[in-house]
Design brief:
Number of strands: 0
Main location: membrane
Family: Belongs to the SecG family.
Largest sheet: none
Distance between the termini: 73 Å
Shape: rod-shaped
Number of helices: 3
Order of helices and strands: HHH
Function: Involved in protein export. Participates in an early event of protein translocation.
Protein name: Protein-export membrane protein SecG
Transmembrane segments: 51-74
């Protein structure tokens, strides 16, 4: 599931970049009046701005949702990694008790 969301996230990012670069700025209309010739578009004179603006808003909202989803996945992954449940409970073996003390000499010496 995380891989699917990541792929959708990357595709949305690339689509947003392309869509934003296709749009023309507010100052582009002034250049067209001096013989720029770029006023004719595929969607019509006024329809292109509205359509592209709405499509950008939809892609941005979807990008935001996928970002939050990936953040939730990452949080769950780190929580599981640092929880005490992840540590396997192996049986503990008590340490071997040393019979002789280093201070007291052994008997028979």
């Amino acid at each position: 599931m995380q891989t699917f969301v990541l792929v959708v996230h990357i595709i949305l990012a690339v689509m947003m970049i392309v869509l934003i670069l296709v749009q023309h700025g507010k100052g582009a209309d002034a250049g067209a009046s001096f013989g720029g010739g770029g006023a004719a578009t595929v969607f019509g004179a006024s329809g292109s701005g509205n359509f592209l603006t709405r499509l950008t808003a939809v892609l941005t909202a979807l990008f935001f949702v996928t970002s939050l989803t990936l953040a939730v996945f990452a949080k769950k992954q780190t929580t599981n990694a640092y929880s005490l449940n992840a540590i396997s409970s192996a049986p503990t073996v008590p340490a071997k008790v040393n019979e002789t003390s280093p201070i007291v000499p052994k008997s028979g010496e």
